[in-house]
Amino acid sequence: MKNLFSKIAVIFLMLALTGCGYNKFQSLDEEAKASWSEVLNQYQRRADLVPNLVATVKGYAEHEEKVLTEVAEARSKVGSMQVTPEVLNDPAAFAKYQAAQGQLTQALSHLMAVSENYPNLKADQGFRDLQAQLEGTENRVTVARNRYIETIKEYNVAIRSFPNNLTAMMFGYKTKPSFTVENEKEISIAPKVEFGDKK
Q1: Is the model's pTM score more than 0.85?
Q2: Is 2 part of a structural domain of the chain?
Q3: CATH number of the domain within which 141 lies
Q4: Which of 5, 17, 78, 123 could anchor a disulfide with 22, C-beta 3.0 to 4.6 Å?
């Protein structure tokens, strides 16, 4: 008889967990991690372009040391951060990482603006290729960030909705931070790339 009650209790618990949102949280949490990984992949792709871009610009615009240093320091800061999926559960760490990426975005925008002053640099095929890769990567970053934002929105709505919120409290699920910056529109725009006439 005791064994029967144990089996009934286990079946009841399984049915309760299925209907209370627990499985949904598991699924959404995995989606959030996957979306975050894609954001990181695109940011890494961008960071990998920076050394070649800086070296190419330096060859034509050596006296633009301030801008070149700004880009190198911003990339170094991003590269030195240890980013794990746990960042998704730590709003302060998430904001710090987000701020570092924002600094790199601004530094690259300054670099692209400076390059406009050097016709020989703009005509350099290597530089043009790097600009095209950077523009494509910035677009991929924007797409990955948007996917992440949607995934986190769905996750956070599930966490806050009744009766799922009771399950969330019971198992310690909390809302996750999303991308929010004062200059979100500016950051989501890929650096402007304009080419002069070939000579």
Answers
A1: no
A2: no
A3: 1.20.1440.20
A4: 17
